[in-house]
Specification:
Layout (H helix, E strand, L loop, with lengths): L2 E7 L3 E8 L2 E9 H6 L2 H10 L4 E3 L9 E2 L5 H12 L4 H9 L3 H19 L3 E3 L23 H18 L8 E6 L4 E7 L2 E6 L17 H7 L12 H5 L4 H5 L4 H21 L8 E5 L6 H11 L3 E2 L11 H13 L5 H6 L36
Parallel strand pairs: 1-4, 4-6, 7-10, 10-11
Antiparallel strand pairs: 1-2, 2-3, 5-6, 7-8, 8-9
Helix pairs in contact: 3-5, 4-5, 6-12, 10-11
């Protein structure tokens, strides 16, 4: 009997999904704003799910499958900020003090993982899309974000659900997945049951709800200096001043319509782009907080045609699809019901970090500034 926990660090909430023999037995959804004030909520939630064979911890921009104990205690906090969050402790501190909502997530993720390491829990960090061997190297050139670890995880859920629903072997599964979260949008391409391409939240061709997504390089050079917190603004909420997705979708006036059209056309462009990599997807799948908003769902159907929600694991009621995907990955790595799926998708063969495919001259000094140490290698 395998018992695991998946922890999805969403921008709005941190969701915990526990599986026992592949069936959901535990769920919690913790608001990030409240969690910053009451960190004991996370700790008590993890304790409620014990005992556990493995925990897929909040993995951000992803690394090769890495057990938490592999990272020396004296460098762990810096390592986590550097490789999982692609930032520094000081950068997150400034963003939190500046009142940027998305920065709360980074603080909560780090504090949660520091606590789990001190407690000696069996935590493992999982890859994002860019570390996967199933994505051709030429698609990774000068790319950091092809889809963070949570987006990778929801694609795992999608493969499982399509295979189950249509009675297919994994090798016959194919889809394009659109994930519309509170902070970021992303789109992933799956062919023959494996992730082959992705467009992450910071490279998406239109704004997310909170975030600007991809930026014109001319804007980058005009601004000159960017802080980590700048990633969390510039999206639909910035354009309209509305932080609630449902009120945003029903908002009236020029600014609301401008933001809505930019948001939705970005999704349409992302799907069209991924048709280069997945030319005949069986389905277009959708997931995330925003796709449950009536007007957004109707607009997706108008622009894309038939879409289907990605699906849920047996027993799931309240956790987001991304958390269920995290849990499925943990179960597979622990040798449970999803072992064959995780092996088929080659998640355990992921290598490196999100910084390993940069070839621009300006990128040469980035990794030198980040924590490294001997002995860090694959956990499985």
């Amino acid at each position: 009997m395998v018992r695991v926990l998946g922890i999805d660090p969403g921008t709005k909430s941190m969701d915990l999904c526990g599986l026992e023999d592949g069936v959901v037995f535990y769920e919690r959804s913790l608001d990030n704003a409240r969690l910053l004030r009451e960190p004991e909520l996370f700790r008590s939630s993890v304790r409620e799910a014990l005992p556990l064979d493995l925990i897929a911890g909040p993995s951000g921009y992803g690394v090769e499958v890495t057990r938490i104990g592999e990272i020396p205690e004296e460098v762990f906090e810096d390592w986590y900020y550097n490789y999982i969050l692609l930032t520094t402790k000081e950068g997150v501190r400034r963003a939190v003090e500046g009142g940027l909502f998305g920065a709360l997530l980074y603080r909560n993720m780090t504090e949660a993982c520091l606590w789990m390491r001190r407690e000696g829990f069996p935590v493992v960090f999982i890859p994002s899309v860019v570390e996967l061997p199933t994505v051709p190297e030429f698609r990774k050139v000068n790319r950091v974000d092809l889809g963070t670890a949570d987006k990778m995880a929801v694609a795992v859920l999608g493969v499982h659900c399509q295979a189950e629903r249509l009675g297919l072997p994994y090798r016959e599964v194919s889809f394009i997945l659109v994930e519309m979260g509170y902070g970021y949008n992303a789109a992933l391409g799956v062919e023959e049951g494996r992730i082959v391409d992705g467009i992450g939240g910071t490279t998406f061709p239109g704004p997310g709800f909170l975030t600007a997504s991809s930026l014109d390089a001319e804007l980058v050079q005009l601004v000159g200096r960017w802080e980590r917190g700048d990633v969390f603004v510039g999206g639909a909420a910035t354009l309209t001043g509305e932080m609630d997705p449902e009120r945003f979708a029903e908002g009236k006036g020029e600014r609301f319509e401008l933001a809505f059209q930019a948001l939705m056309e970005g999704v349409e462009k992302a799907v069209s782009s991924l048709r280069v990599s997945v030319r005949r997807p069986r389905e277009l799948l959708i997931s995330g907080r925003l796709v449950r908003v009536g007007r957004i769902r109707r607009e997706l159907e108008r622009r894309l045609g038939e879409v289907r929600e990605v699906g849920r694991l047996e027993g799931a009621r309240i956790t987001k699809e991304t958390a269920q995907g995290y849990a499925a990955v943990a179960d597979g790595l622990a040798g449970g019901r999803f072992r064959e799926l995780v092996e088929w998708m080659r998640i355990g063969e992921a290598r490196g970090t999100a910084l390993d495919h940069l070839h621009h001259p300006k990128a040469e000094g980035i990794k030198k500034r980040f924590v490294r140490f001997k002995g860090w290698g694959p956990a499985f």
